[in-house]
Amino acid sequence: MSKVFIITGSKSDFPVAEKAIKVLKKYGVAYDIAVASAHRTPARVEKLVTGSDADVFISVAGLSAALPGVIASFTVKPVIGVPASGALNYDALLSIVQMPPGIPVACVGMDRGDNAATLAVEILALSDPALAQKLKDDREAMAAKVERDSEAVAEEARKVE
Asked: Residue 39's pLDDT is what?
């Protein structure tokens, strides 16, 4: 079964990873999770990545946010970076998006573990028609909710005096 491996830079990143876990569970995608530091435990990062059979990696990291890039240096599989918010938000964001040529890392918004997991599911859905259908169904449900919300707002607007 296709798998996603979530690697966080520290235990404090778990609330962001938890958002990803909820999405992966919703779609029935198997995952693993571990904590490893690009700076404090680089050998552990290498061992986790090279020893994994995951199809996609998600990395949550703050501050210098080197972890997604380090993960990408050990694999040719997709790596999705999630910048974790903190005192210096732009540092983490820029560290993930400004990778050197040949070692790309996808980047989602600050603390958007949910979007990272959705992107991982989209990648896996390229070779899984059932997963692709689930994504399509969810998109249609989102569109229907917007239509219902629009109707509700229009109704409320008519009541304004």
From this structure: 96
